[in-house]
Amino acid sequence: MRTKEITGKTVLWIFLLALAFVTLIPVVITILGSFKTNVELTTGATFLPSKWHFSNYADAWDKAHFSTYTVNSLIVSLSTVAGTLLVASMAAYVVDRMDFFGKKIYIGMQSFTMFVAVGAVVLRPQFDLMVRLHLHSSLWGVILILISAHASIFFILLSFMKGIPRELDEAARIDGSSLGRTFWTIILPLLGPGLGVGALFTFRGAWNEYLLPLVFTMTKPELQTLTVGLANLKYGISAASQTHYMMAGACLSIMPILVAYVFANKSFMQMTAGSLKG
Amino acid sequence: MNKTKNATFAYSFLLPSALLTLVLGIYPIAWAFRYMFYNYKGYGTARFIGLDNFSRILRDAEFWDSVVNTFVYAGGKLLLSIPLSLLLAAILNRKIRGRQLLRAVFFMPTVISTAVMAVVFFTIFNSYNGILNQFLIKFNISSSGIDWLGPKHAMLTVILVAVWGAVGNYMLLFLAGLQNIPEDVYESSSLDGANKIQQFRFITLPMLGPVLQMVIMLAIINALKGYESIMVLTEGGPAGKTEVMFLYLYKLFFPVGGSSASTQVQEFGYGSAVAFVSALIVGMISVIYFYASRRMNRID
Amino acid sequence: MKKQLLLTSLSAVLAFGLAACGNSNTAENSKEPSNSGAGSASGEKTKISYWTGDRHDAEFVKEKVADFNATNTDGIEVELVVKGDDFDTALDLSFQTADSPDVIRVKENTIGTFYKKEYLAPIDEYLSDDMKAKFPEMVNLNTFDGKRYSLPNYGTTMRLVYNKDLFAKAGITKPPTTLQELVDTAKKLTAAGKADGAYGFAQNFKSPASALGRSARVIAEMSGFGGFGYDFKTARYDFSGFKPIIEAFKQIKDDGSMLPGVESLDIDPLRAQFAEGKIGMYLSFSSEPGVYSTQFPAKIDWAAAPAPTIDGNAKGASGFLGGQWLALSAKSKHKDAAWKFMEYMYSDQMLTAYQENGYGISMVPSISASAKIPEVKGIEGFLPNQYDGVWPVYPAVAPEGMKSDDAFFKYMLNGGDLDATIADLNKRYNAALDDAMKNDGLKAEPDPGFNPAALAGKFAK
Hints:
The structure holds three protein chains of three kinds.
Chain A: H1 2-33, H2 38-43, H3 55-63, H4 66-97, H5 103-115, H6 123-132, H7 139-148, H8 151-162, H9 166-174, H10 179-190, H11 192-208, H12 211-216, H13 226-232, H14 243-267, H15 270-277
Chain B: H1 3-33, E1 38-39, E2 47-48, H2 52-58, H3 61-92, H4 99-107, H5 114-125, H6 131-138, H7 154-178, H8 183-191, H9 196-207, H10 209-225, H11 228-233, H12 245-253, H13 268-292
Antiparallel strand pairs in B: 1-2
Chain C: H1 2-41, E1 46-52, H2 58-71, E2 76-82, H3 87-94, E3 103-105, H4 111-116, E4 120-121, H5 129-134, E5 143-144, E6 147-148, E7 154-155, E8 158-163, H6 164-169, H7 179-193, E9 199-201, H8 208-213, H9 216-222, E10 230-231, E11 236-237, H10 243-254, H11 267-275, E12 279-285, H12 288-295, E13 302-305, E14 318-319, E15 326-329, H13 335-345, H14 348-356, E16 361-362, H15 365-370, E17 388-389, H16 404-414, H17 418-439
Helix pairs in contact in C: 7-10, 10-16, 16-17
């Protein structure tokens, strides 16, 4: 029994560590690469930089206008997260808990947007619409379009909603709580893990969005986001890409997503912690 | 309860989502789709050609090859990434040492941008001086290295890269889903003498039901639609070996400008028709999956 | 506890997001009137914008635009917008609004499309006789249906780039001039270099269109065939001229003289390996010297030579790409001001600086006669020689099924019947051509007197 447990533990840890190693190698190569010269990086012959070029970071920071663009990126990402979670959780609540005419149509509509991919082709009509709303040169247009693509978050929240016992709604109703109040005070807090992971994915998606902010800030460079700045790092004084700057810029821009991860991760802890107390 | 009042409430909660989806999601797609009956190159007048684009799809061997590749790619990606991420989530949901760090480690790949991935994975896999082959040769596992991005192995390589990028995502979703299972269920079952595997089979899986069903559904759709990492890694090559459906489609809309001087013709009309057929394929598979997995949707 | 924390942080995020958005929006709203107010107060500044997708000269252009803004006496202020790969998408969308640029950088593969999309305004009325004489008129490159839309500045040539050190090691004295020599040279170079991991030849087949567009194309053009398979004599597509070229490439690959892994090789890793001395030869554009002098400092001695021909007879011209630079937007509200800026950009001083600083090889005869050779190592081999010439523009079509470059690369990998592949390509490309001519108004007329050899020799003897 005892030896069996130890063998089991050993196998488990070998598995976990091996997997962690394989997972991290490309990440480590990215970070190491960000300290190499362009030619060393592109040739790809070395693992460790033959000489550490910390200046890549300083250059990438300046060239991508990090300090200004980061603020814009944060505005876009945080607003998109807030909007997406709000819109998707409200819809998921009524779709899961209530019956009404048009529910199937609504679900069909959301599924449809997930099946189709026409890439940047939809930019033209979307841009047209925003021109009519006079939002074509502001970050609002970007945020609205990003929020509108909430189908997968809706479905994720819907599945989490199913895990929340209906008895809770019923109890709240008997206590005289309105439907809206039940949603805000009972359902949303219990949706924590789903909202956490949804927030993280939405944040990451919005943070990495490139084409939308590019198009909507064409005439307003002061509104550009970090991804637009990062994309510019690629271009140098001659025909080859400046891969070393791209790597350094990418490493810098990962940070905010990791911060978002730390916050989201807290929401995966709550149940375990809660039941321990109880 | 007042039924109309309930309906009013439902519609008011649904309105923001429905309106945004309709105006900024469905309308733009419909706008693009109407060109599927036209011959349109992105400028000038669109010429109505009825169903010609669809008969062209039927004889388009490249497209059907890409559909087959898509199934191989999606199947490989799903078979590896779903069990792996579920297993990781189940392990890292337990109070084992260092689980916070390990969760963060497995999440890391999902934050690396695709543009950077191209460079990194080329560094690893290229057959001339890639890190992997250097390693294999040094430790005598292979005498001359493996042509990872060559015609024989390219598909395997892009699947491995896709799995690398996806496991963290699904692990997090499963982890979040596992939070809804109260700890005391496990406690009482271990008192009953159930071992960890039995617990997983008879408690974790059923209680994860709806989340599991939805995550697999999203994973299927993502796997069928994924093309970005393939685009940066192989551009669908060599000789179409890794060309998947949505990469083929992307190239119709946005032809890859080869040399600086070749003029690219945008196949807007035909692209719309291919987009429609591709959506149909993804939709059909999703619906089949959804009906086949209905049982998971219940928590008993 | 935790739940509350989550809820609080969520609402904080919401509040912050909305507040921040509101801020940015009000800031932007308040900025606009104050800007235009300042403009009118300082006395009728005419604002125009110039959009370019060029990066290699961005610093230089930025400086020159600032000079123009500071010195011009007409109160014109030019805003420079530099874009990247997304230039075409951004331009398309800008033409849907009032925010389109006044001056647009056009290229040989975009000017035709922009002309068809009616983005461009003819510039004939602005051109002085002096300018008309100085800048060559090139049909479908800067002139459409008898009207001029742009003027040339600099162009791009194509060459065989080779590693002189490896050549010396293999005892080869001169670069190959025929396909057979190319195959043999690649073999000898590999034999001499393989011990050090060096190979005779390389192509960037991650994108077959990019690989063949800089290699097979120029060999075909030097040998008298259209570089994209179009025969200007008959106004039909005919890829048979490519047969020996593709066979030679396949031979090089089968001989093992090609760098391993070219299937997934991009152009930058190819250049990096060349700079390291691992590649004997490749074919590419005149942008290479800049790469080796700034980004990938070459560790070896290298040079550029004219591309080989199929059999040693130059029956055509090595493509000199260019013929256009700046164009006037059809939607510009300040065409006169925009033209003043274009005049400034097309001044002798500016064009000379372009060549002498190594941004490109001048295509304006009076400039190339007087401007000095740029101080970039290796550029000498790319300067126009007796073989360079400007090819007419071929009618691009979208055939059903596989593109020619992909079909050729597939043959190189898998073998098969090249004649059948070519017959199939001809059939599909011509079907698409007929369709486009019949339905989309594409023009393609036979030119029985077309002589590709006569294209050469106009830029140097």
